[in-house]
Amino acid sequence: MIKVSSLKIELKISLKNRLNETKTPARLTLQDILDSKETLTKKAAKLLGVKPEDISSLQILKHSIDARKKPQLFQVYTLGITLENHKLEEKTVKRCNNKQVTVQSQQPYTFPPSGKAKLPYRPVVIGTGPAGLFCGYMLAKHGYQPILLERGFDVETRSKDVEAYWHGGSLNPESNVQFGEGGAGTFSDGKLNTLVKDKYGRNGEVLRIFTEFGAPAHILYESKPHIGTDILKQVVVGMRNFIIENGGEVRFGAKVTGLRVNDGALCGVEVNHCEQLQTTRAVLAIGHSARDTFTYLNALHVPMEAKAFAVGMRAEHSQHRINACMYGEEQGDWLPAAPYKLTAQTSTGRGVYSFCMCPGGFVVDASSEPGQITVNGMSYADRGGIHANSAIIVQVTPEDFGTDGPLAGVAFQRALEKTAYKLGNGKVPVQYYGDFVQNRPSQPQTDREKPCIKGTYELTNLRGLLPPACETAFLEAMGQFDRTIPGFAAEDTILSGIESRTSSPVRIHRDETLQSPAIKGLYPCGEGAGYAGGITSAAMDGILVAENLAREFEPFQKN
To answer: CA 70 → CA 4, 55, 214, 252, 325, distances in Å?
Structure first.
């Protein structure tokens, strides 16, 4: 017999009526435009050839807006349906053998049974970005009493430090957009989509955990889910408290400055150059900007390699312009702030693409080292800002770095960030695209929109900031993107640089057990180690490492 929970329905419903019913003076939210459960039940029943009352439960599994035939817009739903009667269910499944109705066996996420070996000491998780936080959450939930060590500070203290820096204060190298509770993702749009294949349910489990600690339920089914930095801050605090309440420990201002290794096996970590913490298992979830830690690991001969990533600049546009292009002029300003995704192949052979697109967001000064500038993008949950921004980035490989060795990409990033610092006289360097094309510095003009930047900025000339081949590719791609989104390469498009922290410049090797081949008990994990690319994939990798550790050991018990 087929289980009723496995019935999956695809529905496509015009958005026109919903817009006419719900228009208000303010922009509509996702909840405003979603069709009612009653409407969805009726539509699903008609498709299945059953009565609405035959459907005992209905769940939205996925939702998106289809604007390919604008101005005619559609809402596309994937629904999970349970039928009241088992015989009717079997009959319906046999009758509805088409693309809109399928039978899907979806296994819920399960944490593996614990191993039999005993842990002599509590496991240590180094870093509280998404990888470290979700690894710590899973270990704490299942009785392993982890110790989480974070070089930065709690999100409350960190937020004050970041705001002070954005208003012209000094940069704190240990408490900034890159370092601190929640990692770099805390000051971002909080995008939760990922391209990682997920046959084990880790992706869904990550989203479920987010909702457990305050994220809105719509992230469970939106095709491009996001939280926003304001809600992310609440979520990471809730996860921290959960870890503590379940026997774990979270320590801030606790920078790991060394590893103790005996005969190729981990036996402890050094904290702040003074404290020795005994452990035989440590998760290395250090994030993509822990350059000093990369340097230490390389000196320790931990196997790693330089890897490809991408560099570029943030491009800002009026969100109104983006909405009109993506949704159509008539309804553009009623619907939630529109995202976009752009890719281009150029004559240089380099791919160029939009990255970390932030509807209704801000460019942020995301620097973490004195004398260097790097930028990122951020949105609040309502995506209510007047500008859209995204990084327009160009692929670079180790052949571009100019030096050899595992840390060549780090040196490449630093050189770009130092140039950006000089161009902006210590502030975020900014230029209007028309001036960039003409290779002339931008000047203040009252009739031009000002950048939406968290941090201080200065108008300048950004030509020469990117390597020549990357600059050529960038200009070509902007022209291509302008044909997709008219006005994308307009003279008043605002550029800021440099976007250099798109992903880790290194990959720290790990074996089939997810441990370093050189140090047994050390688990390279997440984006900093080169195994993820964003909040969700990093969180999923943290869960994966927690599973592997648990398969070997039983929950921690004090001797």
So the answer is: 36, 33, 34, 50, 9
